[in-house]
Design a protein that fits this description.
Elements lengths: L1 H10 E4 L16 E5 L15 H6 L1 H7 L3 E4 L3 E2 L11 E5 L6 H13 L3 E6 L9 H7 L11 E2 L2 E3 L2 E3 L13 E4 L4 E4 L14 H16 L4 E4 L40 H19 L7 E4 L5 H10 L3 E2 L14 H14 L7 E3 L8 H5 L6 H8 L3 E5 L19 H4 L47 H5 L5 H12 L2 H5 L1 E7 L3 E7 L6 E6 L5 E3 L1 H5 L4 E7 L10 E3 L3 E3 L4 E5 L2
Parallel strand pairs: 2-3, 2-16, 3-6, 6-12, 12-13, 13-14, 15-16
Antiparallel strand pairs: 1-17, 4-5, 7-11, 8-9, 10-11, 17-18, 18-19, 19-24, 20-23, 21-22, 21-24
Helix pairs in contact: 6-7, 11-14
């Protein structure tokens, strides 16, 4: 017995969540935010592409889930080189999604239902069709330095790019423009030239855009690729990774010390935080607006985003890099590390999936499809899910002819599947009718997953046990007082089971157990986790065959392979 007690101490960490929080208007704390990829959510006009009216028509689904907010991937005017992340007008709705009137109707309907609306803000770059860029090409002031232009370097009498910087989508990050006779920087597609934030006029323009959408009543922004906004003005070559194991022109082959994570970023973020807060105070209810920031970066950088004004520096520990945190020890170590870096007064967040990475069921296996949603419900802070997570949608493998994502297309027919994000962007599966109920079109912008006949929302609503019914329970759980103020422990329960315990005095704890192995394990959770000998099953992952509302003897829990279960009081 003594040996077991010592082990428990070594592998358990207790973190106290604010025990007596002051009343706050920050609606996002202990909530779920739901990301919608508009092209794939619901098509209202039969053109094969999702749109704003389609989203409005399905808001009741979000209300039924009881999520707190929807975040819309870009809906702005765009040539769609990168499907909306190449913006040609930041204050106009692209016709493929509808009109400003449609957007106003969407936000008004959402607010009437108690649902917040967040927009994607894409500050790093514009489309090369944006009027600013067209004027910059012609050196019309002040637009001449709105972008990053450089002369090429002569090598054996031939002009080559200024340095070795690479695009995230592969190949050189520099594109030659014959009219201006210079290269421009694009850290993503060639159709997405990087803005120059060393020009004060650029930031002034972006502040006008933020104000415009705040005036339209949006509740906050998710800021895309924020850590790409500044580059080292010396424009030095970036060092190559040793033994990277990738092609010479692959982005992962360089150490990005001059093109990412520069400290100037935080100065700009602070100015945006001030602008957004000032606008919020003028609103009728003075309700604060939320800022989410996307930066795939080192944990050491995350605290700086909190300090500069991000409410939600997005936590990608579950999805980046893929499968890195596939063991119990790795999950525990990184959950603890994240919780320890969150500054006092701020909250953690847990990203389950997004539009850039394989879905959880495809990353970890179908039987683990619910695992991360369950973790994000039990862990303190905000859960961020991606459309389709609530029904366990999976990636659909695409042929080369079906591929449209530039990240995949740039690699060609032999390697496109290594980087294409199309598999995670397929239409939402509403029912078993044509195109899964997403569209009446003969052809949708991406093919619907073939499994839609059985994996769809309507079917799951009719079943007592489903991903959908489980997720509704998780949202309800996250709103409980124990989730807001209870202490939290992450515990290794033997070799293959990860445990999380939330506690408040005088009430039964909430306990999550996740089996990381593929075979059944028997655990004495009572001893390992210091919990009551009997607890009730609140919820379990689909396929675990663990029924809800049954009482379990916690001294001998049979946990099937890849299963997860949440226990609580009666």
């Amino acid at each position: 017995m003594f040996r077991w007690i010592v082990v428990c101490i070594l592998v358990s960490t207790t973190i106290r969540v604010d025990a007596a929080p002051k009343p706050t208007k920050e609606w996002w704390k202990d909530s779920f935010i739901y990301q919608i990829y508009p092209r794939s959510f619901m098509d209202s006009n039969g053109d094969g592409v999702g749109d704003l009216n389609g989203i409005t028509s399905k808001l009741q689904h979000l209300i039924d889930l009881n999520v707190s907010a929807i975040w819309l991937s870009p809906i702005f005017e765009s040539p769609m080189v990168d499907f909306g992340y190449d913006v040609s007008n930041f204050t106009k709705i692209d016709p493929i999604f509808g009109t400003m009137s449609d957007f106003t109707n969407l936000t008004a309907t959402a607010k009437a239902l108690g649902l917040k609306v967040l927009l994607d803000f894409v500050p790093n770059h514009t489309s090369n069709k944006h009027p600013w860029f067209l004027k910059s090409v012609k050196k019309i002031k002040p637009y001449d330095d709105y972008y990053i232009w450089m002369d090429g370097k002569l090598v054996n009498g031939t002009s080559e790019p200024p340095n070795n910087w690479l695009s995230v989508f592969g190949g050189s990050a520099w594109e030659f423009n014959e009219e201006r006779n210079q290269y421009y920087l694009h850290q993503f597609a060639a159709g997405q030239p990087d803005l120059n934030y060393r020009s004060a006029a650029v930031n002034t323009e972006m502040e006008k855009i933020l104000t415009f959408w705040l005036d339209q009543g949006v509740d906050g922004f998710r800021i895309d690729a924020i850590n790409f906004m500044f580059e080292d003005p010396r424009y030095l070559d970036e060092p190559r990774k040793s033994n990277a194991g990738v092609d010479e022109d692959d982005y992962e082959g360089l150490v990005h010390i001059y093109t990412k994570d520069l400290t100037d970023t935080f100065t700009i973020l602070k100015s945006w935080r001030k602008l957004i807060d000032t606008h919020g105070k003028k609103a009728p209810k003075g309700e604060p607006k939320i800022i989410l920031t996307e930066a795939y970066t080192r944990m050491s950088e995350i605290t700086k985003y909190y300090e500069a004004g991000s409410d939600v520096p997005m936590n990608f520990m579950f999805i980046d890099p893929l499968n890195r945190y596939s063991s119990t020890m790795e999950f525990k170590r990184n959950i603890d590390a994240w919780m320890n870096l969150v500054p006092k007064g701020h909250v953690a967040n847990w990203v389950v999936d997004n539009h850039d990475n394989p879905r959880v069921g495809s990353r970890y296996g179908v039987r683990r499809s619910d695992e991360l949603s369950m973790l994000s419900a039990v862990l303190p802070g905000i859960g961020i899910i991606y459309y389709g997570d609530e029904i366990g949608m999976l990636d659909r493998n695409m042929t080369w002819n079906e591929t449209v994502d530039p990240a995949g297309c740039n690699l060609g027919p032999e390697k496109y599947h290594l980087k294409s994000r199309d598999p995670v962007r397929t239409p939402f599966q509403w029912d078993n009718s044509t195109n899964a109920g997403f569209s009446t079109a003969n052809k949708t912008w991406l093919p619907v997953h073939e499994n839609y006949k059985t994996l769809n929302l309507a079917a799951q609503k009719a079943e007592p046990v489903s991903h959908y019914s489980l997720f509704k329970k998780l949202v309800a759980l996250k709103k409980m007082p124990i989730m807001k103020t209870g202490s939290m422990e992450v515990i290794l329960v033997g070799e293959n089971v990860l445990g999380v315990v939330r506690r408040l005095p005088d009430i039964p704890p909430v306990v999550l157990l996740i089996n990381f192995s593929e075979t059944t394990v028997v655990v004495d959770a009572r001893t390992w986790m210091n919990i009551p000998e009997q607890l009730t099953v609140y919820a379990s992952s689909v396929g675990s065959n663990i029924p809800s509302e049954v009482t379990m003897d916690t001294t001998e829990i049979n946990l099937p392979g890849a299963a997860s279960v949440i226990l609580s009081g009666p």
